[in-house]
Amino acid sequence: MQSSNRKEILSSVFIVFAAVFAVLIIAWTTGPFHYHFKGTRLVGLYSYFQLFATAYIAYLACRYLEKEKSLQWRQNPSARPFFICALGFLFLGFDDLLSLHENIDRLIHLISGIKETPLTDHLDDFILLLYGIIALFFIREFAREFIKHPYMVGLIVCGVAAFFAMSCLDFLSNNDETFSYFFRGLSYSDMRHTKDIFGMIEESVELVGETFFLSAFIAALVNIKTRNR
Q1: Are 43 and 37 in contact (CB under 8 A)?
Q2: What range does the domain containing 56 cover?
Q3: Are 10 and 226 in contact (CB under 8 A)?
Q4: Of 31, 41, 42, 34, nearest to 193 (Cα)?
């Protein structure tokens, strides 16, 4: 890999991570406790931005690869993974924005008539875990193409690790019953405070995980563009 290529990739990744850490510093140090971690506030809005940006960057990479071989993504094994990933991150953006997996959880309870319990309350967590398993399958299928782009596989692996760490934290802090099982002996006020902190950590890990994925596709896009100059 050429030195200029490497510098452009690392500079791009550095800017993306500098931006997300600036957001997290603001979120953790300003405003009322956990104010920036609610719904459509700072962390949530930046999460939507990163997911949709990743979808767009993956689509751009797909388009450049289509032009490189003069083949559409359906017949182009190099471009196809990027098109599918663009669709995947577009779906994840809408899932996050519209709380799709949480609403699927509620719909299952409504249709089946199951009474919500501490166990069934984790249905949305299992749906999220299913997303991760599907992603692992596609990463395995696309690894041969991803490995052609420097730093991409390493960034994706870090993103997957952050996703599963986030899933564990989400499971832990999803409801009071589960949380109190692991943290016995806390008063109600201490439990609520500790649970809020875990929620903030979970959303922070989620944001950093998204940044790894965004950086991975930016690294691929920069590599594709610079090698075709």
Answers
A1: yes
A2: 3-227
A3: no
A4: 34
